[in-house]
Design a protein that fits this description.
Number of domains: 2
Order of helices and strands: HHHHHHHHHHHH
CATH class of the largest domain: Mainly Alpha
Shape: elongated
Largest sheet: none
Strand content: under 5%
CATH architecture of the largest domain: Up-down Bundle
Helix content: 55-70%
Radius of gyration: 23 Å
CATH topology of the largest domain: Rhopdopsin 7-helix transmembrane proteins
Structural class: mainly alpha
């Protein structure tokens, strides 16, 4: 149960061609960009501030941005609808960052994953005999790949290039697959020695699936629809198995053995579903920075902390069971 599958689902449902945004087709926008290019960029282009060049802005891109802001300001004064340009809202950049709010919330999403690594290690210390069970590595790989996903989300929202877009999508997809992989291993206890062969087969299958997915998109054809469908499918399966876990671990055990924290995974799925709905109400950015997508990122921060609280409790319980058996 990770944090990005629902984002893929919504993006798949609302996907539009970035080259066909209404703002791009405005005659006044085209004229503004053309005039800026001919008067500013063609002859003796000015030297851009360091904070812009550091984020790889050049003169034509700066003209495009300035014209977006000019047209948007004029439409605001005339009480006209705010339009998207190149598939994005005309955010006001900050120190060269294209989507400041999404970057801030992506960084804040990084923190619970980073914090979880140290917390999980405390629950299963290296010098404790109870740590010698296979699940330990599975617990730790989840936050590591979670950090990776949010790092590239931050980079992508700083500057939207083809490379940063691909790294964001591929890292998010890897994170989704990791969550699915961990869920199957944990819930069905593939870490146990009697399931060693099945674990190896499942591990290889997941690695091949991820490698094939990235190779196809990188070397053959980058298809947004295929990428979305693949991630949505794995994400939905992942959430279903965590719902199964909560229901089976709470409602199908003796009343005296029920523990409320085992319902946390299904509660997190529900919470993330509500958070997902924020993107259904897409709107022009508030304060030229905060849109529905950035609010979705904001809404996933607390569920991350809650998820790792469940993992810590689960790690303690599994370690306790292991120590009693040995």
């Amino acid at each position: 149960m990770q944090l990005k599958p629902w984002n893929f689902l919504l993006f798949a449902l609302t996907l539009q061609l970035v080259s066909a945004s209404a703002g791009d087709r405005l005659p006044e926008f085209k004229e503004c960009v053309s005039a800026c290019m001919s008067t500013v960029c063609d002859n003796n282009p000015p030297r851009l501030p360091f904070y812009l060049t550091a984020l790889f802005w050049d003169c034509p891109q700066d003209c495009d941005y300035e014209c977006q802001r000019k047209i948007t300001t004029e439409r605001n004064l005339e009480d006209k609808e705010i339009l998207q340009f190149h598939g994005k809202w005309p955010f006001k950049r900050f120190l060269g960052i294209q989507e400041p709010a999404s970057v801030v919330f992506s960084i804040l999403n990084f923190i619970p994953h980073y914090h979880a690594i140290f917390e999980l290690r405390k629950k299963i210390p290296e010098n404790d005999a109870r740590s010698n069970y296979y699940l330990k590595n599975f617990y730790l790989v989840v936050p590591v790949l979670g950090m990776n996903a949010w790092i590239w989300s931050s980079v992508f929202h700083c500057r939207d290039f083809r490379l940063t877009e691909r790294l964001d999508y591929f890292s998010a997809g890897l994170y989704v697959m990791t969550g699915f992989y961990f869920g199957i291993v944990r819930i069905f206890r593939l870490d146990r020695i009697e399931h060693a062969r099945l674990l190896h087969v499942f591990t290889v299958a997941c690695i091949v699936a991820v490698a094939s997915h990235i190779s196809y998109l990188s070397l053959i054809k980058f298809s947004y629809s295929y990428n979305m469908i693949a991630n949505v499918s794995v994400g939905v399966l992942q959430n279903l198995i965590w719902c199964y876990y909560s229901i089976s671990q709470y409602f199908f055990v003796q009343a005296s053995s029920r523990q409320a924290w085992k319902l946390w995974p299904i509660a997190n799925v529900i919470l993330l579903t509500f958070a997902m709905s924020l993107e259904l109400f897409d709107f022009p950015p508030l304060l030229d920075a905060i849109d529905a997508h950035s609010l979705w990122h904001a809404a996933t921060i607390i569920p991350s902390y809650w998820w790792y609280e469940w993992m810590k409790k689960d790690a303690e319980e599994v370690a306790s069971i292991k120590s009693r058996r040995t």
